[in-house]
Amino acid sequence: MAIYPGDIISHAEMCIEEGFSLQKGMNYRVKGRTTVILMSLRKGAPYADRVEEDGKVLIYEGHNVPKNLASDPKAVDQYEYTPRGTLTENGKFFHAAKRFNDGNEPAELIKVYEKIKDGIWAFNGVFELIDAWIEKSGNRNVFKFKLLITDRTIDQKEQREFELKDLDHNRMIPTSVKLTVWKRDNGRCVQCGSTDNLHFDHILPYSKGGTSLKTENIQLLCARHNLSKSDKIL
């Protein structure tokens, strides 16, 4: 079953969906499959990811060298190549963005999952990798990647992409809103109290003037009640 932006899942469910074990944040076409990143905007998150333009743009920070290559990975430049001369995940993403900007390839499609709290993840949707650069952070260089949310999603099982027509999927719900809604609704569907197959739902759809930025317009619904609501709106 395909997943959709706003769906809440466990780490194990993410791995099943993607077809491999997600042990790192950056995953470029692992096993020839879709590119995936894991992000976090929580306090104390290891990387300085940020969201811009009301949830349409994600600025994702590259990852540090492994601990076996530096006593303090945060004190050295993020690396593009491994000691063996192969591209790191930073390098793979960086070169993909360059190929897009040079007009040689379409933008890489990336599925983005966000850690809300321990054991709880949300699917933020599919993004296009449209730019990359290196910038100073203190005394070292770090990679930055610019991703633009799209109205496309990917059926991982069939390895195909298709468009989502619901404009609610064209904005990320801010992390602070997700956390507040999760706490307010006690991690349960507001209609039936279910804790399974939950989704961050817009009470008033974006296409009808609703917003992703206010907790008053976001609620938790299970898949059954989310589908039931969608049918009524249509």
Describe it for me?
The chain has 234 residues and is α+β, with helices and mostly antiparallel strands. It contains four helices and twelve strands, in the order E-H-E-E-E-E-H-E-E-E-E-E-H-E-E-H. It has two domains: 165 residues, PUA domain-like; 62 residues, no CATH class. 18% of the residues lie in helices and 31% in strands. Strands 1, 2, 3, 4, 5, 6, 7 and 8 form an eight-stranded mixed β-sheet that branches. The chain has a two-stranded antiparallel sheet with strand order 9-10. A two-stranded antiparallel ribbon has the order 11-12. Strand 9 and strand 10 form a beta hairpin. About 5% of the residues have low confidence.
- Count the strands? 12
Structural class: alpha+beta
Mean pLDDT: 88
The radius of gyration computed from the alpha-carbon positions, rounded to a whole number of angstroms, is: 18 Å
* Largest beta-sheet details: 8 strands, mixed
What's the helical proportion of residues? 10-25%
Order of helices and strands: EHEEEEHEEEEEHEEH
CATH topology of the largest domain: PUA domain-like
The count of domains is: 2
What is the H level of CATH, i.e. the homologous superfamily of the largest domain? SRA-YDG
Strand content: 25-35%
**Can you count the helices?**
4
Low-confidence runs of at least 5 consecutive residues: 156-167
Terminal Cα span: 21 Å
Question: Which features would summarize this protein structure in a list?
Answer:
single chain; 234 residues; alpha+beta; PUA domain-like; eight-stranded mixed β-sheet; two-stranded antiparallel ribbon; 12 strands
Draw up the topology in text.
Elements: E1 8-9, H1 11-18, E2 26-27, E3 35-39, E4 50-52, E5 57-61, H2 89-101, E6 108-117, E7 120-137, E8 140-149, E9 152-155, E10 160-163, H3 175-184, E11 198-202, E12 218-222, H4 223-233
Parallel strand pairs: 3-6
Antiparallel strand pairs: 1-7, 2-3, 4-5, 5-8, 6-7, 7-8, 9-10, 11-12
